[in-house]
Specification:
Layout: H1 16-26, H2 31-38, H3 42-49, H4 58-65
Helix pairs in contact: 2-3
């Protein structure tokens, strides 16, 4: 699937957990694949998607943005 710039924007009041899950789904990536591509630990992905954190350090922000 092609992810367009428009589809990468948060939807309405979409939280970080749903936003990351939605984009990961659009890219057809597993949590493990995303963690590898983003260069961050899989536990970080799990915490984000599980709603256990809303604060990302610079490494996580940069990795997910790339």
């Amino acid at each position: 699937m092609i992810v367009t710039e428009h589809s990468t924007r948060p939807l309405g009041d979409e939280g970080l957990a749903n936003y990351v899950q939605r984009l990961r789904g659009q890219l057809s990536l597993t949590q493990k694949e995303l963690s590898f591509k983003a260069g961050i630990h899989i536990q970080t992905i799990r915490k984000i998607e599980g709603g256990q954190t809303n604060r990302l350090n610079q490494k996580a922000k940069g990795g997910l943005a790339a």
